[in-house]
Amino acid sequence: MPRIFRVFLFWILILCACETSVSSPQPIPPIVTPLAFPTTAIPVPEPIVTRSTPRIDQPPDGNIPTTQPNPQDCGYQWANQDLPELSSSFQTSIQALQPEALANAYAFGENCIRSDGSLAGFGAMETDFNVTLHVSDLTNESDLGEWIVKVMQVIENIPPEQIAGPQPGRVSLIFQSNGDQKMVNFSVNQYQALGPGLSDSEIYQALQIPQ
């Protein structure tokens, strides 16, 4: 009987040892320590406010000015401006000399361009003239010079109040004959500075010098 008890106890010990070796201990969950946050509030930056700068044509009160802007606020650009009334009367006078002639007048000066690209105004510097005439011979300098004198007599008879700009303008004459043409371009004061007693051909030759 004691022998049987020992055998039984022996197998119990073996089984207990096997169960202990097979089972693994359960992992112990880690202890999480809460992080300590500062108790003071983080300052939030204030929103950035953009203040728009008013354009030249739009002051802070929103009213559009009716006066011309300061010239210092302009970007200047060369420009021409038609003079319809002067062109009409000028062409009438030239066609009285030659019915098939063409003529016009225009102001030459500067446009005042605002920073936004809009046009603020035009400042005339001079009044220029274009004339196209038909002649029989482009090599006849005496005939061409005579036409120059006739055209300048018309221009010099224009009332000063009809001339735009403070400085003397330019005159461009195109002589046409049988499909060919020849141009003479000179300033009014260049013509007026010619010496007295010049022949028509000498006038034509003197105005060939560009200025």
Structure description:
The chain is an alpha+beta fold and about 210 residues long. It has a domain at about 85-105 and about 130-205: 2-Layer Sandwich (Alpha-Beta Plaits), CATH 3.30.70. The protein contains five helices and five strands; from the N terminus they run αβαββαββαα. The protein has helices spanning about 1-20, 85-95, 140-155, 190, 200-205, and strands at about 75-80, 100-115, 120-135, 170-175, 180-185. Strands 1-2-3-4-5 form a five-stranded mixed β-sheet. A hairpin with a 5-residue loop joins strand 2 and strand 3 (about 120-135). It is elongated, with a radius of gyration of 50 Å. About 15% of the residues are buried. Residues about 20-25 and about 30-70 have low confidence and may be disordered.
SSE order and pairing:
Blueprint (H helix, E strand, L loop, with lengths): L1 H21 L52 E8 L1 H14 L4 E12 L5 E16 L6 H16 L13 E8 L2 E8 H5 L7 H7 L5
Parallel strand pairs: 3-4
Antiparallel strand pairs: 1-2, 2-3, 4-5
